[in-house]
Specification:
By secondary structure, this protein is α/β, with parallel strands linked by helices. It folds into two domains: 154 residues, SPOUT methyltransferase, trefoil knot domain (Alpha/beta knot), CATH 3.40.1280.10; 67 residues, Orthogonal Bundle (Trp Operon Repressor, Chain A), CATH 1.10.1270. The protein contains ten helices and twelve strands. The strands form four sheets. A five-stranded parallel β-sheet has the order 2-1-6-5-8, with helices on both faces. The protein is elongated and about 70 Å long. Bound molecules: adenine (ADE). Adenine binds next to strand 5.
Length: 247
Amino acid sequence: MFLGTSIQYTTDMKIDILTLFPEMFKGPFDESMIKKARDEGLVEVNIHNLRDWAKDKHKSVDDRPYGGGPGMILRVDVMERALKNLKSSVSNHQSSIILLTPQGNVFSQKKAQELSKLNHLILVAGHYEGFDERIREHLVDEEISIGDYVLTGGELPTMVVVDAVVRLIPGVLEKEAKDNESFSKWKMENGKWKITLDYPQYTRPENFRGWNVPEVLLSGNHAEISRWRKVHAEKRTRERRPDLLKK
Ligand code: ADE
């Protein structure tokens, strides 16, 4: 396991995650694509417990809000110690520190592509009522939300971001799989990004209950197949996500 102290691989990308619930990451990060990427040394992922940087005997990382109100707030001093320590673990000290909060910029495929090019990501998963505002103001580079809904903490959003980023690291997936899927058809057209959803796909049987596979896909005519896929990808995008075409 990679909880706490980590195995050191030589990789181009290192992801450090700060959380109060390290055990939550065990299943998702020990399976499938992320496991493969870690095993092959394409990415190093370490999970850290924020409490490791607490100073008192109760290992407290949060406190009541000044001015009163419900809940507990994560402390800026503990967070600074943790972040400084994680930053010092990379030689160039060029780390991007990202806070997962519902108040952040909404995550997108474009952002995932941007993050996949960085060398060191520190993702901070908050819990409880929130962060001391000084963490936002002075310690982090960016806040990311995974959508307009509120979860109980930043752990699941962190996993979403890690999954979306790791699969884009060169060598993790076959290039063709990435190029052909929904939301990856990013093309620059007239200085603007154009995105389309995926085209419909079929496999055997050719006829099931009278539901037939479109003739063109059985034709072997690659030019025709490409055309059909492009038309249907655009049609689907227009019908389901016209907002993407306007972006
Ligand atoms: N923490 C709680 N809800 C969240 C969301 N939607 N995105 C990111 N972090 C969160």
